[in-house]
Amino acid sequence: MNKIDLEHAITTEPFRPVILRLSNGAEYPVNAPRDVGMARNGRVLFYFGGDDWVMIDPESIVEIISRNGKTQYPPGDEN
């Protein structure tokens, strides 16, 4: 996933919760903007869930799913 699409998904106002789905099938719910942080160069994403954090390679994000079940990324792949 490119930096621009990812930034759009996590900085849209008003914020809309999304789920990040990775190529390995893992899913990470982003309930608030502070649940994720991205390096300025867009090469790494940090997900903060509960008491843990996960470092994610943005290239492994294959889908961003809005809470209503529709795919936000890649564009045009709506459910």
Main sheet attributes: strand count, strand direction, barrel closure:
4 strands, antiparallel
Q: Give me the side-by-side strand order of the main sheet.
A: 2-1-6-7
Q: What is the oligomer described by this structure?
A: single chain
Q: Count of helical segments?
A: 1
The CATH architecture designation is Roll
* Proportion of residues in extended strands: 35-45%
| CATH fold name | SH3 type barrels
Low-pLDDT sequence parts: none
- The number of distinct β-strands equals 7
**Please, what is the average pLDDT?**
87
The N- to C-terminal Cα distance equals 19 Å
Structural class: mainly beta
Number of domains: 1
Q: Into which percent range does the helicity of residues fall?
A: 10-25%
Notes on the protein architecture:
This protein has a single domain (about 5-75), classed as SH3 type barrels (Roll), CATH 2.30.30. The longest helix has 9 residues, at about 5-10. The strands form two sheets. The chain has a four-stranded antiparallel sheet, covered by helices on one side. The chain has a three-stranded antiparallel sheet with strand order 3-4-5, with no helix packed on it. By secondary structure, the protein is mainly β. Helix content is about 10%, strand content about 40%. The model has no long low-confidence stretch (mean pLDDT about 85).
